[in-house]
Every structure is written in structure tokens, then in C-alpha cells.
Amino acid sequence: MTFPARRLRRLRRTPALRRLVSETQLSVNDLVAPLFVREGVDEPQPIRSLPGVMQHTRESLVKEVRELAGLGVPGVILFGVPEHKDATGSGAWDPDGIVQLALRDLRDEVGSGLVLMGDLCLDEYTDHGHCGVLTASGEVDNDATLELYGQVAQAQAAAGADLVAPSGMMDGQVAAIRAALDDGGHESVAVLAYAAKYASALYGPFRDAVQVQIAGGGDRRGYQQDPANAREALAEVQADIEEGADLVMVKPALAYLDVIADVRAAVDVPLAAYHVSGEYAMIKAAAERGWIDGAAVGLEHLTSIKRAGADIILTYLAREVAETLS
Ligand code: PBG
């Protein structure tokens, strides 16, 4: 008779044994809540494809953030939904633009007790829905866009952001933003670079949330990464760190766990991963049908993202997971 040489099941026998040998701990300290704030509405608006997530008013945003802080969530990242859009996306750097107003409200409310981040991009503010300004022939103009990103960075920093998070995937964006922050006297504001950001179909519900449609049925493949490429992600991350990124991000998360693990092995800066709108929506939709246990799948997703190597997870599940873990 032959017996197994090693009995791995011994350490799985009781909850206490499993707890003792657990390699990965998901903590509320790892979570960042993405939040939407909409200009010109009196009541928070539900988002059809993101059940449980709202387009906030300035008032309801303050309340939500106060509650998140109370639950121990250490950070939030803001996305604006402006009333008016234009060709350059000027609402993104207007001192009275919706995100700048919201950052001031929140800074007054929470002091330094919570990390305030601004997503730094133009797509929510442009009438054509691209992440940069366009040339006469309709291409996204990399270098003209960098100028504007610098202005957005200064506006968000002046309004109280601790961190700005460029998500537009323009070449040189981190260097341009770092220089603009330093010129504006904002040396202490950090840059969280969406370094490896893929042209993903998982952003669909987010575009409902910020009411963005890309003109002419276009897409972002001319600036976001091809999902087929992993080595290219390391080149993006390396470039962003050389340009001065304080933290880097991989986005989306679950379909890119290999990229998260590769980046973790290659660099020493804090690594964030974004569990994006489509990842959240798939859980909620299947749970609503009773096909999966949504809460359990959510914890499994986030634990796996952490196991792959992420230190920080941006997730629409932040609030409910914080409630579960606390
Ligand atoms: C761009 C931006 C997007 C997301 C975050 N920042 C959308 C895009 O690149 O089209 C997506 C986030 C999500 O899906 O949750 N400002």
C-alpha cells in the first residue's frame, strides 16, 4: 500500500489552523472607494449598471465620505460628472469645477484623516469623450493634452487633493504633471499613475456613471494598452516611475493578475489595482439572479488581487467590505 508522502490537509482542518497559516490578509486599510459627484442635481442619482453606487450631490458625497472614514476606509478617489462638456474639457481644471468644489468640501470635513485623490483625466469633461484634446484630423493630441493635464493637477492640488491619479495613458503624463505640481508649489502632492491601463470592455458601467460616450463609436485603443500584452505593462510602469510616479496602478484587476504579479516583482513602489466597474457589475448581476453568493465572490476577488501582489485596491465594494471586515 502506498500513502501520500505529505498530508497538506492537516493544516486545513480547523478554522483556527486555517487562520494561522493564511498567507494573505485583506484589510480595510487596503481599500480606496471610487466616488462620483455630479454637478447640478439636488438628489443623488442611482447608476443603472452599478447597483448600490450613486452619482452624488456635493452634500450626499460629504455624508458618504464621513461614513467611509468612520468605517476606517483610508482613501477615496473622485470622478466628476459636469453639467456642461466642451472640446477641451475645461471643467476639469476650472477652480469651480465639480471635483475641485467637492475636494474643498471634503478637506474641510475630514481634515487630514482621509487620503483624498482626484482621478486626473479629461474624458468626463470633453464633448467627444476622449481622454485628451483632438487634432484637426480627430487624433488624440498627446503633447497638447499634457499641457492641460498639468493645469488639472494644479487645480486638484489647490483644492486639497493629497494625490492625483492620471488615467489618460498619454506618454509623458507623469513627468508633465510632476513638473506642473512642483511649479505650482505642490511638491507634497503625490502621483498615483494608472501605469498599466488596458483598453478594456470592463469599463462599460463606469461610462454610464460619468455619462461618457466616445464620439463616432470610437474607442481608446490608440492610447490604452492591448489586453494581449504583458511585457509592455512593465515598460509603462518603468517609464512612470522614472518620470516621478510615487505609486503605480494596474487596471483592470482580475483579468490582469499576471500583470499585477509581474509588476510587484519588478518594482518597489506601492502597487494599486483597480477592481473596475464591470468586475463589480458582473458580481452584482449574477448575485441578483441568485446564481452566486455576491458577498463571498467579492471577498474572493479582492483577496486574490491582494495575493497577486497589490497593496491597495480601488473598488466599488469598499463600503460593504469595510462593513464586513470591521
Ligand atoms: C478615465 C477612467 C476610466 C475609468 C477610470 N478612469 C474609463 C476609461 O478609461 O474609459 C474606468 C473605471 C471603471 O471602469 O471602474 N477617466
How far do the termini sit from each other? 49 Å
Helix content: 25-40%
Low-confidence stretches: none
- Tell me the Rg in angstroms: 20 Å
Structural class category: alpha/beta
Look up the CATH topology. Answer: TIM Barrel
Q: How many domain units?
A: 1
Pattern of helices and strands: HEEEHEHEHEHEHHEHEHHEH
Shape: globular
For the sheet with most strands, the description reads: 8 strands, parallel, barrel
What is the name of the CATH superfamily? Answer: Aldolase class I
Number of strands: 10
**CATH architecture heading:** Alpha-Beta Barrel
Beta-strand portion reads: 15-25%
Q: Order the strands across the largest sheet as they lie in space.
A: 1-4-5-6-7-8-9-10
Just give the CATH class: Alpha Beta
Name the bound molecules: ligand PBG
Mean pLDDT: 97
Number of continuous helical runs: 11
